[in-house]
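Write out this protein's structure.
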Amino acid sequence: MKIAPFVLASLLASFAAVGAGVGTARADDLNPPSGPVPAARAEHRAEHRAERQAFRQMMMQRFDANGDGRLEPRERKHAIKALRRMARQLARQERRGERGARMQEKLIRKYDLNHDGVVDQNEMPPGVARRLQRLDRNRDGWVDGADQP
C-alpha cells in the first residue's frame, strides 16, 4: 500500500500540470516523459508501463463523464477531489495498520514470559486473554508474528 499514495500524488501532479496548460487533459497527457532505459531494466519498465496504461484507462473511464476521451476542467476537478479523498483514506488505513502492529508487538513483549515470541493463554491474566482474542487473526489460539495485519 505504500505505492498507492505515490501513484495518487503523481496523478494529482499530472492533473494540476495539465490544468495550468490548455484546459483539457487527454489520456496521453498523463504519460510522464521518459529517457533512455538501461537494457537490464527494460522488461521491468515495459511491465510497469503496461500497468500504468491500464490504470490511466481505468481513470479516464471513471472520470471522463462526457466520454470524449478528455478531462474537461470540471471533470479534472472532480478527479482531483476524488483522488485526494482516496489518498487520505489510504493514509488513514496505513496509520491504523501501523498502530495495530505496534500495539501487538508491545503486548507480545509484555506477556511473553518464556520469550519464545508467542503469547499463549497461560502467559496472561484471563481478562487480557479475552481482549487479545481479537488479535489472534488466524484463530490458532496464539498471538504471534503470523497474526500481523
